[in-house]
Design goal:
Elements: H1 12-15, H2 19-38, H3 40-52, H4 62-72, H5 74-77, H6 88-105, H7 108-134, H8 136-141, H9 153-170, E1 176-178, E2 181-184, E3 187-190, H10 198-215, H11 219-251, H12 253-281, H13 295-300, H14 302-307, H15 314-336, E4 354-357, E5 374-382, E6 387-395, E7 418-423, E8 431-437, E9 441-451, E10 454-456, H16 459-471, E11 478-486, H17 490-503, H18 506-513
Antiparallel strand pairs: 1-2, 2-3, 4-5, 5-6, 6-11, 7-8, 8-9, 9-10, 9-11
């Protein structure tokens, strides 16, 4: 019996890859596995939003779209030679920094954006500028993996309300508007968060970017189509809200609400989307059989050749990439462990000219700060009878789930009947919000934040200060103060102003309660 020598053969998948791409693709695969593992928390959170939040369900289509976009470019990519490029580590460092800032400050959008940006940055580092330029649009399109857009809800609510009242008046229906409430002869309508149109807008922007790249060559036509992809959904949502009010005048509110969910929810926006694409169709200037990329331009680009002088060994770049990622996660771990000490028990202090009294409210109101380490709530009454409700929240550190000024927290408690109507004149640098419950209970609320020696109302400034301190491992507590009075006119404004005048500088007052002053 004779055994014939069996010569080794390549796996079919490896054999299908052109030789110059085999090692770079292996290095890229290893880098992506490492990055996905190290930053799995961000990816798990994002996928949770994709699956469970209807605003972001369309993102489930983005990964297959990215695969398709790369597949389109495979014939041209096979003719290129990828070269690892050490300046690409700068791009990776920037992505890691964005993640770090978001992670240590509790800004999920930043940490998730950083996690996504690491993938195209690693492409640049391990495949080089020429291959990355060939993959430019897919790398850009990966940003649509980040679930972002719900922050626009309050702005879109107000825009929708303005469009709706204008169309209501044009259609001859008498109506009055206050914030997001529109009062008509048949009843009071609210432009709720679900009616803001943010779901359609973010999905349309993602679709618009894809169509602009695939169907247009002209930069100006692409820009025009993208502008239409933003403007048309906003206008269409205003028409949708007006249509509901218009139908209600003749068929009743219940019929209009049902019609809105069935027709406008499923049909109207599909028609709008088809109309927008159809209107742009006649301006498409890119043929169907045109290659996805201009190979001759990429191969002959002198500026890319000059950049490739900074090429480096792929395994060395991969090792540097891993070291940067591990060092960044270690830094974040140390920074997150830094927390400021807070007393076990705190109480609302006495205020000259005011006394603490039992809380009595026309409609229940209490801000929410579930991530705060210490919370206080009480009511003060002045000698003249003015009453204010005071809410204080203290945080030993700022991170995901423990954020002063986070979306959904603050003066407007989510999941309640309270709605935001607009801003009011500020007092002592605070942010003034006009609120209303069930259309008949107005309230004015003034908010301040305190971090270190800074007192203000800017959430962005607060985030920046938090990032600075945690990057430097500096422990400082953060506080939120909300002073509110029922009503929305001069009396409520005067009551809050008088209370702030009685406590002195609001920042110092917040510090004294926890023993910092």
């Amino acid at each position: 019996m004779r055994l014939d020598a069996i010569s080794p053969t390549r796996a079919p998948l490896t054999e299908s890859i052109v030789p110059q791409w085999r090692a770079p693709l292996l290095q890229l695969a290893l880098a992506w596995v490492a990055l996905l593992a190290l930053f799995a928390g961000e990816w798990a959170a994002m996928m949770g939003h994709w699956w469970s939040n209807s605003t972001y369900n369309h993102i489930l289509l983005v990964p297959p779209i990215l695969v398709w976009l790369v597949w389109q470019r495979l014939p041209e990519l096979a003719l290129l030679t990828p070269r690892a490029w050490w300046p690409g580590l700068v791009a990776l460092g920037a992505a890691l920094l964005v993640w770090l800032l978001g992670n240590i400050s509790g800004l999920a959008t930043a940490s998730q954006l950083g996690a996504v940006a690491m993938l195209p940055a690693s492409v640049l580092a391990l495949l080089g500028p020429r291959a990355s330029y060939a993959l430019l649009f897919p790398l850009f399109y990966s940003v649509f993996l980040v679930p972002i857009g719900e922050e626009l809800v309050p702005v879109l609510q107000m825009i929708t309300a303005d469009i709706t009242i204008a169309l209501t008046h044009l259609s001859g229906i008498p109506a009055e508007i206050e914030g997001v409430f529109i009062d008509t002869p048949v009843g009071l309508f609210e432009v709720a968060e679900a009616c803001s149109g943010v779901k359609f807008l973010v999905a349309m922007v993602a679709l618009g970017a894809l169509i602009a790249n695939q169907c247009f060559r002209s930069v100006w036509r692409r820009a025009a189509f993208m502008a239409a992809s933003v403007i048309v959904p906003i206008l269409a949502n205003g028409v949708r809200a007006w249509g509901t009010i218009y139908i209600a005048q003749f068929q009743g509110i219940e019929f209009a609400a049902g019609f809105d969910h069935i027709f406008y929810g499923w049909i109207f926006f599909a028609v709008v989307m088809a109309t927008l694409v159809g209107a742009g169709w006649r301006f498409f200037d890119r043929s169907v059989d045109e290659p996805a990329i201009d190979l001759a331009e990429i191969q002959g680009a002198g500026w890319i050749t000059s950049l490739e002088r900074f090429a480096a060994p792929g395994w060395a770049v991969l090792a540097s990439l891993a070291a940067l990622a591990i060092a960044t996660t270690a830094w974040a771990g140390v920074a997150r462990a830094v927390e400021a000490p807070l007393p076990q028990a705190i109480v609302l202090p006495q205020v000259a000219g005011w006394e603490q009294v039992p809380t009595e409210q026309g409609w229940p109101w209490r801000p929410q700060a579930p991530g705060a380490d210490r919370r206080l709530f009480g009511t003060y009454r002045s000698a003249s009878g003015a009453r204010v409700d005071v809410f204080l929240a203290y945080y030993a550190a700022q991170e995901e789930g423990r954020e002063a000024g986070a979306y959904g927290e603050g003066a407007q408690p989510p999941g309640t009947e309270w709605r935001w109507l607009g801003e009011a004149p500020a007092i002592d640098g605070g942010k003034a919000d006009r609120l209303q419950a069930v259309g008949v209970h107005p309230r004015l609320a003034m908010t301040w934040y305190r971090h270190g020696d800074w007192t203000g109302s800017s959430r962005l400034e607060l985030k920046a200060l938090t990032m600075r301190d945690r990057l430097l491992f500096t422990a400082r507590p953060t506080a939120t103060l909300i002073v509110s009075a029922e009503g929305s006119g001069d009396a409520a404004q005067a009551a809050i102003s008088d209370f702030i005048g009685a406590i002195g500088p609001s920042g110092k007052w917040m510090d004294r309660i926890v023993g910092l002053d």
